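Could you please review the protein record set out just below?
***
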Amino acid sequence: MKFMLRVALQLLAAFFLLFVVVQSIVIATIYFIWPEAGSDENSLNRYAIFVQVLCVILFFLTLLVAGWYLGRPIYFIIVWIKSLANGKYDAPLRWEEIQPRKGGTLKRPYSVYRELFEHLQMLAATLQKNEEELRASERLKEEWIRGISHDLKTPLTYITGYSTILMNQEYGWSEAERREFLSIIQQKAIHLQELVHDLNENIQGQLPLKKDQTDLVELVRRAVADLSSAPWANGHSFKMDSDQRRIIADCDPKLLTRAIRNLLVNAVIHNPDGTEIAIFTSVVPGNIAEIKIEDNGVGFSQSGVHGDAATTSSGREGLGLSIAKQIVHAHGGELIVSSRPDEGTSIVMKLHVTI
């Protein structure tokens, strides 16, 4: 309402100025150029025609001036809207020229459309924020899909390994052993189905956490037992310990298991046979649970582990580490990596706990 009133007052002032200017010019012209106007009937008629022509000329000239005065801001607004439509959210280059006053007051005649400019600034900020959120969401989706594709390798390795063992005719497996191998294959097939289902998760700005009260000690124990039983991990030794019988945390057990499994898989496949892998869970002051995974393997340079899908200088893939870091950060936790070539690796996962 204030905007409409201000525009109406501006137009009223422009037309009042038009009237005053026209009358002043007419009176001055008649007084200085045509002093004998109105002395007879013919001169009176010519005077009337002259006044009408002069008024029409001055009227159109004044309209042009008023249109230029009030039209410049509209043209500026149109250019700004066009820039927004093209995905350019910064203010136009001339914005600083029309807003030089203290307190952000616009110059005339741009101040007439102050509310429009304020809303354009709000619109530009909103569009820019939405685009950044969309890019972040798309990036997270790509990382989510890439992470699941990476995790598909683990159950496929189990299925391939145990099915190869079963088909090997050189060994006479007992019925109990065959049932055990088939049970593992079935479990990994179910794990594959879960991962494929996760591909269809709707990722909106963050990982789809399904939190539950979970015993971290038991969760880590199961992950270690599962990985240590894999045929391709037989050459590595695993040791697990904890300073607590139970450590309860509000977390997504499936995703957290994925994170731990990725770290353990990295410790296996990137280290030679005979590597010792130690896992220790504890609670430190501040109700923080620590899950520490250490190995005495080849280690790696940390120069490449800060990216989302880095590859370290030693050739050790950073995708599994990146997946674990993403999951831990989604839980509000922290993942600390310490490693040097030929000196082994230490990874500490910190999570908030309730007990």
Q: What stands out?
A: The beta strands are 212-215, 237-242, 248-251, 276-284, 288-295, 334-339, 345-352. Residues 27 and 33 are 10 Å apart (CA to CA).
